[in-house]
Design goal:
The complex is a heterodimer of chains A (112) and B (114).
Chain A: E1 5-7, E2 10-13, E3 19-24, E4 31-38, E5 42-50, E6 53-56, E7 65-71, E8 74-79, E9 88-95, E10 102-103, E11 107-111
Parallel strand pairs in A: 2-11
Antiparallel strand pairs in A: 1-3, 3-8, 4-5, 4-9, 5-6, 7-8, 9-10, 9-11
Chain B: E1 3-6, E2 10-14, E3 19-21, E4 23-26, E5 31-38, E6 45-50, E7 56-58, E8 64-68, E9 73-78, E10 87-95, E11 102-104, E12 108-113
Parallel strand pairs in B: 2-12
Antiparallel strand pairs in B: 1-4, 3-9, 5-6, 5-10, 7-8, 8-9, 10-11, 10-12
The chains are: A mainly beta (112), B mainly beta (114).
């Protein structure tokens, strides 16, 4: 298996623009997680899905952030409009039945 | 609220020194415990995990961790570190009744001098 796939790996955008991050979980995994990592706040869970259904979105910082999982093999995290304080590395992870989480390579987002 | 605390933010060791990184969690129920490692510029990888059974678990690259339930601790150890162990280490807890949700500690940056 190729592991968790994220795209793009790097994104540089200007404040106010819409940003869409994509994730393909490991085939057969039923949990998908979105994390944000910054120097100041460390690793934060933003939202997670079970069988494509959002279970806990309490970590989503604001209404500017939204996440979807239209099917078992694809999820998006959207920021609209983006702000400089959204600059971070965003990780997607997946797991089977809540066990070990496998992380993707991350998307490094820079908002100018 | 549940939390995970890692005592050391930055540890500097020389090669061959022994390592112990502290991790404590605040939750009285059943937990699964993990240590993840993040090498510079890379994503998180699992070092080891504890779900049940022997509280002393062995992971990859010579790492081990001991779950002490009475102390709510899951400390990571390695008898002799190498320069290649330079990385950030994260302790994480999965609460049994909250599906797959992981709560991470703040991370400990380990620098090993050659």
């Amino acid at each position: 298996d190729a592991g968790v796939i994220q795209s793009p790996r790097h994104e540089v955008t200007e404040m106010g623009q819409e940003v869409t991050l994509r994730c393909k979980p490991i085939s057969g995994h039923d949990y998908l997680f979105w994390y944000r990592q910054t120097m100041m706040r460390g690793l934060e869970l933003l939202i997670y899905f079970n069988n494509n259904v959002p279970i806990d979105d309490s970590g989503m910082p604001e209404d500017r952030f939204s996440a979807k999982m239209p099917n078992a093999s694809f999820s998006t995290l959207k920021i609209q409009p983006s702000e400089p304080r959204d600059s971070a590395v965003y990780f997607c992870a997946s797991s089977f039945q809540g066990g070990e989480q496998f992380f993707g390579p991350g998307t490094r987002l820079t908002v100018l | 609220a549940q939390s995970v605390s890692q005592h050391n933010h930055h540890v500097i060791l020389s090669e061959a020194a022994s390592l112990e990184l502290g991790c404590n969690y605040s939750y009285g129920g059943t937990v699964n415990l993990f240590w993840y490692v993040q090498y510079p510029g890379q994503h998180l990888q699992l070092l080891l995990k504890y779900f049940s059974g022997d509280p002393l678990v062995k992971g990859i690259k010579g790492f081990e961790a001991e779950f002490i339930k009475s102390k709510f601790s899951f400390n990571l150890r390695k008898p002799s570190v190498q320069w290649s162990d330079t990385a950030e280490y994260f302790c994480a807890v999965n609460l049994y009744n909250q599906g797959g949700k992981l709560i991470f500690g703040q991370g400990t940056e380990l620098s090993v001098k050659p």
